[in-house]
Amino acid sequence: MNLRSAARGFLAFLLSVPALQGNGDWRVTYSSSNVCALRGATVDISCTYEYPDNGPYRPNTVKPLWFTKASNYQPIVLEHDTEYTGHVESSCGEVNCTGARCHGTCTLRIKDLRQSDSDVYKFRLTTNQPGGEYTGDPGVTLSVTDLQVKVSFPDPTDPTWTKLECHSMCGLAGDPRYIWFKNGKKGRQGVNYKGHIQSGENYSCAVEGYERLRSPLVYAPKTPSVTVSPSGEIKEGSSVTLSCSGDANPAANYTWFKVIKGPFSTNLNQGPKLVFKQILRSDSGQYYCLVQTELRQASNWITIHMKYGPKHTSVCSDPSGEIEEGSSVTLSCSSDANPAAEYTWFKINQPLLWEPSQRHTFPSVRPEDRGTYGCHAENKYGQLSSNSIFLNVTCELTI
């Protein structure tokens, strides 16, 4: 096979392997036993054949045939199959007889290669002699491939310095020249591309002269979008799902984290969704989704504000213990609630006409203020009463 035909189909593994059979001195030899070509390109598969020249008893040869995909032990003749109409064509040169042998050549051309064209192709020569069918075995193996971009990081001290390599599943013959496209624009040449790849950039490669046959895009993940379902207020005990979606190639890995304190976080889940079947008050906080590919990573944040009724409602006094008449004392009610609770005060289980506040101060406590106090916390999600506290007011002695 000449360089021109090799370049046309980007052929690889050009191994001349005699493929003969039939009877006696009949032979079929293919130019290569393995052919690799890009999807969408055109490829030529060629062979030579020869048979003995018996002078006046020379067989009258019938048009040679190419076939593949034996079905029910019957070969499919490409030029006779509707699947290949307009997709394949064959051409043969004149037969030359010199000395005691006759020689001929034939070429099968397959255009606009498809993945389904990956197969073994064989040449058959039929004559008018009894049993005069001669097939070249083992045939030619055609592999149809796409270009791919291989990603690596050559500098361990700089994780953003990236090396991209344009390659196929089988080497392409003729040392083809590769062209790189950055964000769709033609750029550098060469099998490798090195540089810092930024979020949102995309890259592909092609062989010069076949720019339309580009590799799939490789690009760093864009900042992912994160959502919470259901949206709006989240009530304790309900089912909540955090979802992360990001556009990336190579395919991305998703990891969810919860921020614990400051720069620290804990790894929660692998996958694009984080599901709380019955969310707890302790699940309130800030979460972020990390999207990672071979190229780089990106993340985004979301905060869960849990809504729940009052918990751990308690009351205390300042100062505590015995309190002298005329001194100042403050009663405080505390409760964990979201949204914040409103407070009601009680004395001996009877509501007081105080302002509904978290604290109540006696500027000058009196003996009649002596007694048992408690508070009640309430918001739209629930209510809870506190413990009781005894305010012990001692009288000032008069002499």
Structure, explained:
It is a single chain. With about 400 residues, this protein is mainly beta. It has four domains: about 140 residues, Immunoglobulins (Immunoglobulin-like, Sandwich); about 70 residues, Immunoglobulin-like, CATH 2.60.40.10; about 80 residues, Immunoglobulins (Immunoglobulin-like); about 90 residues, Immunoglobulin-like. The protein is built from one helix and 36 strands. The strands form eight sheets. Strands 1, 2, 4, 7, 8 and 9 form a six-stranded antiparallel sheet that branches. Strands 3, 5, 6, 10, 11 and 12 form a six-stranded mixed sheet that branches. The longest helix is centred in the first third of the chain and has 7 residues.
Task: Explain the layout of strands and helices.
Blueprint lengths: L2 H7 L7 E3 L7 E4 L3 E5 L4 E10 L12 E7 L2 E4 L10 E5 L3 E3 L2 E10 L8 E8 L6 E3 L4 E6 L2 E5 L8 E7 L10 E5 L2 E5 L2 E5 L5 E6 L10 E2 L5 E5 L4 E2 L4 E6 L7 E9 L2 E7 L2 E4 L8 E8 L4 E8 L1 E13 L3 E3 L4 E10 L3 E6 L2 E2 L7 E4 L8 E9 L2 E4 L3 E6 L5
Parallel strand pairs: 3-12, 21-28, 29-36
Antiparallel strand pairs: 1-2, 2-4, 4-9, 5-6, 5-10, 7-9, 8-9, 10-11, 10-12, 13-14, 14-17, 15-16, 15-18, 18-19, 20-22, 22-25, 23-24, 23-26, 26-27, 28-30, 30-33, 31-32, 31-34, 34-35, 34-36
